[in-house]
Task: inverse folding
């Protein structure tokens, strides 16, 4: 008795619930064990109960009995196998959509609320004013602020098919000469975004990797506050060329800045930090633009840059207009006021540095 002969006999057993295909063809014959006085066939069933299992076991035994000579017993066992999961689309987000992006730069900090988003949005506008092709991905899945800061919160991005693996691609919004993408466009207004860790990670990668950016000189990534798992996975999976660290002078401990810096300098990541931006470096009253009040102390940014071995790329004043224009969705970097010029200087310095 050979295995082939037994399989041939088992082809007589058909599964009425599955287009009457035979059990060999369906891959249900898990094992055939031929011994001197018995043959053991093991049938594989999916975890979900097959209502025809008993019928198939009986038919299989009958087929074996018909085939086997007298004195050889037929035995049928079963084993439960995990069903193969249907392949999910979008799972393998590749880097194809970043193929035509020259510089990908993360805007990060160790601490929240220091003005990352303000700097990112204004730097994007300033680079666009200089004639560069610019995009900005809002990677803050918990508190996206790009829609409000750019006055695009009513917009709904469209999608089109076109990824390498046939997945959808989101089309970024265009305003002020910049391409914007944010998870905020996909949420109800005012609705809190609550994510489990892994979901946040994948949503965030989608906002960067599943977007039809096209050719860009700069893609800025507005990083979420902190330096947790999300950040590490972001820095690992998105080919950022380097980062800009935003800080405020009153960041008493260097520790926060250090945490932000270390995220990029960690072993295996090792991306350059292009420099430090000191936000709210001094206070300037709206009515007296020439005055500077160092309400958080003077020289904090310089000292921090020196101690961390970083360039101080820019000092941005604390001005009421910066907050107001952020709330109004019209970044100051679009205008000609001195507070807007600080961002143009930053853009100039960065582009010089990157050649
Ligand atoms: N130089 C500035 N002058 C005046 N207001 C500012 C300045 N920079 C930031 N702000 C205001 O401070 C608030 C926090 O800024 P922003 O949202 O940019 O910080 P963030 O670091 O991105 O915060 P988060 O960590 O929550 O992402 C905003 O209301 C913003 O308008
Ligand atoms: Mg922010």
Result:
């Amino acid at each position: 008795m050979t295995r082939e002969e037994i399989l041939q006999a088992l082809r007589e057993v058909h599964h009425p619930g599955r287009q009457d295909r035979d059990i060999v063809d369906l891959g249900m014959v898990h094992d055939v064990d031929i011994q001197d006085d018995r043959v053991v066939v093991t049938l594989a069933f999916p975890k979900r109960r097959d209502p025809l299992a008993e019928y198939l076991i009986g038919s299989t035994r009958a087929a074996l009995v018909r085939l086997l000579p007298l004195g050889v017993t037929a035995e049928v066992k079963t084993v439960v196998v995990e069903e193969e999961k249907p392949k999910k689309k979008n799972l393998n987000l590749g880097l194809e959509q970043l193929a035509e992006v020259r510089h990908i730069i993360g805007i990060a900090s160790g601490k929240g609320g220091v003005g990352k988003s303000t700097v990112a949005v204004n730097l994007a506008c300033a680079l666009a004013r200089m004639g560069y092709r610019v995009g900005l991905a809002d990677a803050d899945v918990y508190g996206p602020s790009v829609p409000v800061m750019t006055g695009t919160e009513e917009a709904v991005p469209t999608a089109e098919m076109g990824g390498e693996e046939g997945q959808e691609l989101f089309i970024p919004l265009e305003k002020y000469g910049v391409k914007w993408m944010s998870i905020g466009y996909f949420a109800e207004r005012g609705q809190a975004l609550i994510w489990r860790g892994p979901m946040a990670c994948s949503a965030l990668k989608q906002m960067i990797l599943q977007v039809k950016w096209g050719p860009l000189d700069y893609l800025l990534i507005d990083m979420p506050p902190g330096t947790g798992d999300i950040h590490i996975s972001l820095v690992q999976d998105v080919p950022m060329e380097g980062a800009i660290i935003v800080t405020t002078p009153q960041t008493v401990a260097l520790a926060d800045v250090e945490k932000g810096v270390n995220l990029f300098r960690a072993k295996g990541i090792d991306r350059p930090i292009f420099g430090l931006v000191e936000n709210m470096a001094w206070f300037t009253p709206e009515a007296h633009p020439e005055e500077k009040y160092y309400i958080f102390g003077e020289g904090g940014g310089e000292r921090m840059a020196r101690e961390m071995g970083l360039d101080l790329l820019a000092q941005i004043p604390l001005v009421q207009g910066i907050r107001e224009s952020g709330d109004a969705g019209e970044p100051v970097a679009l205008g000609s006021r001195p507070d807007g010029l600080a961002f143009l200087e930053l853009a100039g310095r960065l582009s010089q540095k990157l050649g």
Remarks:
- The two ends are 76 Å apart (CA to CA).
